[in-house]
Amino acid sequence: xxxxxxxxxxxxxxxxxxxxxxxxxxxxxxxxxxxxxxxxxxxxxxxxxxxxxxxxxxxxxxxxxxxxxxxxxxxxxxxxxxxxxxxxxxxxxxxxxxx
Length: 99
Description:
The protein has 5 helices and no strands. By secondary structure, the chain is an all-alpha fold. It is elongated. The chain starts with 11 loop residues before the first helix and ends with a helix.
């Protein structure tokens, strides 16, 4: 993964969260920020998937995790698949045409 430097101003309440995470995980604040952003990105991807706005592959890519990790994360959050019945039928028809 390529790193890019950004300058960001955080509200005081987020600084407290970052400092707390750094102490709890015994990491520096930069690492704590990266961890928290990762958690936020995953939560954002889960919510978009839940609303049917992105696919499973897009959710995994957005969160920066593997497809398997995203499936596990969705299950932990109680999110069911967002494939519609017509999409399932088309997939079954396609598979039937292959066989």
